[in-house]
Amino acid sequence: MTEASIRIGQPWRKPPFIKRPWLRWTLLLGFAAYLVAAYMTVEVNWSRVYEGLERGKKFVLAFTNPDFTTRSSDIYEGMVESIIMTIASSVVGIAISIPIALGAARNIAPLPVYLICRSIIAVSRALQEIIVAILLVAIFGFGPLAGFLTLSFATIGFLSKLLAEDIESMDKVQAEAIKASGAKWTQWINYGVQPQVMPRLIGLSIYRLDINFRESAILGLVGAGGIGATLNTAFDRYEYDTAAAILLIIIVIVMALEYLSGVIRARVQ
Amino acid sequence: MLRLEKLVKTYKTGDQALKAVELTVPEGQVLALIGPSGAGKSTLIRCINRLVEPTSGRVFLGDVELTGLSSGALRRERRRMGMIFQEYALVERLSVMENVLSGRLGYVGFWRSFLRRFPQSDVDEAFRLLDRVGLAHMADKRADELSGGQRQRVGICRALIQNPALLLVDEPTASLDPKTSRQIMRLICELCKERGLAAIINIHDVALAQMFVQRVIGLRFGAVEFDGPPEGLTPDVLTTIYGEEDWEATIEAVDDDEDDIEVAV
What we know:
The complex is a heterodimer. By secondary structure, chain A is mainly α.
């Protein structure tokens, strides 16, 4: 009897991913039990929540009545500082990221260079922005310099990693054709590699600009300058209406950047 | 002009792609390399310009031994070997002109090429070549806007603008329809004749190879099984190269109807 004739007339099911039934069920039930146990350890203080609701309500209601005027000069200065921090750190970060990305792409860099560049990326990604900012504020004092350095550093980890991955997945033959013409290494990068990864590089750069702006609002909370500092002050003084105004401006700017990046990315395809 | 001596390539996986291949190509000879997939045709071509590093053996281009050259010297010698690829291998996001001019990269400095300021003589030659293959009006189009046949013509221009002594051609017609395939093969052979170029053409279409070349090399498991004129490809010979099959139909279908090169726009 052939394989097919045995199976004709029998129902067919996709074979399960975990073949042993006891293992499959142990994993599923174990995970469910863990979830229940984990949620039960989270304590909720309901009387505290009830008190907090009142404060939350004030905060949310402030958005219906944001105050742009009382602290307008503070908001303006903070915003300008944030934008300067964002642009300066993005440009510097991207400029440093490109050579590191080339070094971190296994298909074009020799192993020692690859390892060095990958470790730089790993360090940059392992250290969260806030932690770096706290350290840099301790070194350089309060103000936008610490914020600028933090964001530049964070940009390297983000952009180098993603750009390197794009370089690694490029079409090898196009690059090979340039090499076969007798091009130098720099020319090979410029003609064989760069055109292939340019759309990704532009897309990532705009995305990072967006992230850096949002981060600049957070970094102020630990003293690294920008609109975050203004926002922090507003919270400390319980001026929720001013805080609401600042948050609204941030939201509008982020949305504008989002729209802009969509337009640009569609253009560079 | 080109001489391979005991050329061996063993890949890291242990596959022996080339087994002591000996081959001499005289000035101006167009040669077809046939053989089943995995016979080592692509490896052989890539070992010549060292896109693939041969394991042992020697390659001479004229008097220069290519194997063992430093990377700088190898770059200079690569300028004398134009390469045409399967699937064209144009840089898709560059314009036709940039693709053609990229054949001059071995001759111009980095900044000139970076700023796309090529010498006037290179630009003129690029336009002459594009005109020769009927694509002068496409110069500023992006390469990915072209059809397959057009792309391969650009690939041919890119190889020729190097002013090479030898063309290495890897399955030039693999992704083209039968008519375009013939046009491309004819174009390559005509240009070789005009310029007195030697060429090694990898091709799996035996009939097409017979139609255009003076000499055929049959490769099987990395060893030369046949070396002779296209008429020498009898069913017996094809069986030693490819294995048992009915070969009569393949061989006799070869009569070239003279459709002159028409330029697909």
